[in-house]
Amino acid sequence: MEAAVGAPKAVILVGGEGTRLRPLTLGTHKSMVPVLNRPFLEHLLEHLKEHGIQEVVLALRHLHHQLLDYFGDGSAFGIALHYVVEDSPLGTAGAVKNAGHFLDDTCFVINGDIYTDLDLTAMLEFHRQRGAMATIALTHVEDVSSYGVVEIGVGSRVRRFLEKPHPSQTSAQTINAGTYILEPQVLDLVPPGQPYMFETGLFPALLSAGWPLFGHPSSCYWIDIGTPQRYLSLNHHLLHLRQSAAGHSQSHSIWSDDGCYVHPTAQVVGPILMGEGCRIGAGARVEGPSILGVGCSVEPGARVVGSILWAQARVEAGAVVEKSVLARGCCVGSRAHTTSGCVLGDETSVPPGSRLEPGTLVWPETPPEKLS
Ligand code: GTP
Question: Which CATH number among 3.30.479.20, 3.40.50.2300, 3.90.550.10, 3.30.930.10 corresponds to the domain 9-223?
Answer without folding.
Answer: 3.90.550.10
